[in-house]
């Protein structure tokens, strides 16, 4: 079986290990690069995600593909001492950078760190009030399996939020964005992180990702209901939300 790694067709197992290489290699420069490449706007996208999550004190939250833990940090304050947040990621390097950052920020007892693949989450059915996956789904090989797994571990009434790069409906913006991500972004990656290839992969994975409507349908097929999405920054990013009823 083959799958896409950027534009290339590669065997399924190889995609997973190449994604692992990319994130081992970008882990330490990840936060700086995020701010640089998005001009800091990723902070606004994440803030909206938190607002729409509706997380309250005492809730259980899973931040899958949580990486360096930006969302986990906010959730740990919202759920308070009686709640819990699981920061889960397939990649040990990203998890350990995330853990150090959260500890530096005074995050304590209500956060757990779990190395896990979104495609087969190691949690019982009906565990979480809310699940977020931010800029993670496009890296997952079997996205349908990942969405089914997330739906399974959500409690009835729980929410899944998917924050991900998407397709700007405006042709002009789409062209400008392509130029930016395929020409400029790998160069910034080369200059700042000395790693043009990883950033070339990231740009290519964005282009391969399903558009807004397709992702909405995929979430519905996985068993989520009342699925809706909001385009952010002209649709460069979209925030999808679905509920398990
Ligand atoms: N959520 C963080 C954020 O928004 O800043 C990190 C996003 S980072 C671009 C993508 C993360 O997805 C990486 O940490 C990577 O290790 C993780 N990832 C990739 N494939 C995964 C999978 N199958 N299961 C869980 N995490 C995965």
What's the helix and strand layout?
Elements: E1 2-5, E2 8-11, H1 12-26, H2 30-37, H3 42-53, E3 60-64, H4 70-79, E4 84-89, H5 92-104, E5 111-115, E6 128-134, H6 143-153, E7 154-165, H7 171-193, H8 196-208, H9 212-221, E8 225-232, E9 237-243
Helix pairs in contact: 1-8, 3-4, 7-8
Bound molecules: S-adenosylmethionine.
Structure description:
- This protein is α/β, with parallel strands linked by helices and 245 residues long.
- The protein has a single domain, classed as Rossmann fold.
- Helices cover 47% and strands 24% of the residues.
- The protein has 9 helices and 9 strands.
- It has a 7-stranded mixed sheet, sandwiched between helices. Strands 1-2 form a two-stranded antiparallel sheet.
- Helix 1 crosses helix 8, helix 3 runs parallel beside helix 4 and helix 7 (171-193) runs antiparallel to helix 8 (196-208).
- The longest helix has 23 residues, at 171-193.
- It is globular and about 45 Å long.
- The model has no long low-confidence stretch (mean pLDDT 91).
- It binds S-adenosylmethionine.
- S-adenosylmethionine is lined by residues 19, 23, 64-68, 70, 89-91, 94, 117-119, 134-136, 139-140.
Structure described in brief:
This protein is of the alpha/beta class. It is 47% helix and 24% strand. It is built from nine helices and nine strands.
Low-confidence stretches are none
Lateral arrangement of strands in the main beta sheet: 5-4-3-6-7-9-8
Let me know the largest β-sheet.
Answer: 7 strands, mixed
The counted number of beta strands is: 9
- What is the end-to-end distance? 34 Å
CATH topology: Rossmann fold
Strand content: 15-25%
User: By CATH's scheme, which homologous superfamily applies?
Assistant: Vaccinia Virus protein VP39
Overall shape: it is globular
Average pLDDT level:
91
Sheet/helix structural class: alpha/beta
The bound ligands are: S-adenosylmethionine
């Amino acid at each position: 079986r083959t799958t896409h790694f950027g534009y290339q067709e590669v065997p399924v197992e190889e995609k997973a290990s190449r994604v692992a290489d990319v994130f081992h290699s970008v882990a330490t420069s990840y936060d700086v690069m995020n701010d640089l490449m998005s001009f800091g706007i990723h902070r606004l996208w994440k803030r909206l995600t938190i607002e729409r999550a509706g997380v309250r004190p005492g809730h259980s939250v899973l931040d899958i593909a949580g990486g360096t833990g930006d969302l986990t940090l906010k959730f740990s304050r919202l759920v308070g001492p009686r709640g819990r947040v699981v920061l889960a990621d397939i990649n040990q390097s990203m998890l350990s950078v995330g853990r150090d950052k959260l500890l530096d920020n005074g995050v304590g007892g209500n956060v757990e760190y779990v190395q896990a693949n979104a495609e087969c989450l190691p949690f019982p059915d009906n565990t979480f009030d809310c699940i977020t996956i931010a800029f993670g789904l496009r890296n997952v090989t079997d996205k349908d399996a990942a969405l089914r797994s997330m739906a399974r571990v959500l409690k009835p009434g729980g929410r899944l939020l998917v924050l991900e790069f998407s397709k700007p409906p405006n042709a002009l913006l789409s062209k400008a964005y392509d130029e930016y991500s395929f020409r400029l972004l790998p160069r910034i990656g080369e200059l700042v992180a000395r790693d043009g290839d990883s950033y070339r992969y990231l740009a290519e994975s964005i282009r391969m990702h399903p558009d807004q409507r397709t992702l909405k349908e995929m979430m519905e097929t996985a068993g989520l209901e009342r699925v809706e999405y909001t385009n952010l920054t002209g649709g460069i990013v979209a925030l999808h939300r679905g509920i398990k009823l």
